[in-house]
Amino acid sequence: MIVLKSPREIEMMKKAGELLASVHKEIAKMIKPGVTTWEIEEFVDAYLKKHGATAQQKGYKGYEYATCASINDEICHGFPRKAPLKEGDIVTIDMVVNLNGALADSAWSYAVGKVSEETAKLLEVTKEALYKGIEQAQIGNRIGDIGHAIQTYVEGEGFSVVRDFIGHGIGANIHEKPDVPHFGLPGKGPRIKEGMVFTIEPMVNAGEYYMKMDDNGWTARTVDGRNSAQYEHTIAITKEGPVILTDQNDR
After folding, report:
1. How far apart are CA 19 and CA 245, in angstroms?
2. 148 marked as binding residue
C-alpha cells in the first residue's frame, strides 16, 4: 500500500531534508586525497546529534554505521573505513536522517582530487539522470516514466543502470511503497499522485550493470571492477510538481 503524506508531514520531512542537504555540503568541503570515510562517518554522526537528529540507518537490520561510504567499484552500502581516499577515487556517501520522527534520504557521489575523463563523465551523467527522473515525477504520470527517462539517457551516454537496487517510498519507515526502478517502460507502474514521497537514486556503472555482493553481506560492487556512481534525492509530489526535499541548490 502506498501511504500518501499530508502537507504537514511533507513539511516535517522537508526540514529533515534540509538538514541532510547541509550535511552533504559540509562533506563536500572535506573530500580530498588523504581523508578517510571513517572521518566522514564520525563527522556525520556528531553533526546530526548536534542538530537534534539521528542517523536512521544506524542499527537498521543490523547495519552499524551512520553512513554508507562506497568507493570506486562499490555500487552501494560500502562500510566507512580508515584507509585514506586517493587521488582519482570517487566516493558515494549515503545517509538517512531522522529529525523529530520525519525521515529524509540522500546519496551523493564525490570526486577525490582530479579524476579520469571517463569517471568525470560518469559523475556528470549519473547526476543528470537523477534530474531527468525527477522531471517525470508529475501527477498523472506513472512510476515507469521515471525509470524509462533515466535508462534511456544513461544508456545513450554509454553507461548502464543498476537493476538490483531501486528507489522507494519513504515516510515513517526508510523503505515503503512505491518501488521506483531506474529502468523500464513508460506508462507502466503505479500512477503518481499528490502526497506521494519517494526517492529517486540511480546507480550508474561505467561498464556492465551486473553486481556481486561482498562477504559482509551488505556491500555491492560491479562485476567488472569498473566505477559506479549514485545521486539520490527524496521528493514530494505536489500540485505544483515534484519538490526536492533534500535540495542542495546545485542546479
Report:
1. 10
2. no
Is 233 annotated in some ligand binding site?
no
| 94 annotated binding-site participant | yes
* Domain definitions of the chain by residue range: 7-244
Q: Is 105 annotated as a binding residue?
A: yes
C-alpha distance from residue 82 to each of 24, 42, 132, 230 (Å): 20, 11, 35, 22
Q: What's the pTM? A: 0.97
176 is in an annotated binding site: no
The residues that bridge with 237 in the sheet, in sequence order, are: 242
DSSP code for 112: -
Q: Is 95 exposed, middle or buried (0-12, 13-18, 19+ CB in 10 A)?
A: buried
pLDDT in tens, 30-55: 999 999 999 999 999 999 999 999 99
155 is in an annotated binding site: no
CATH number of 7-244: 3.90.230.10
The reply to whether 201 sits in an annotated binding site is yes
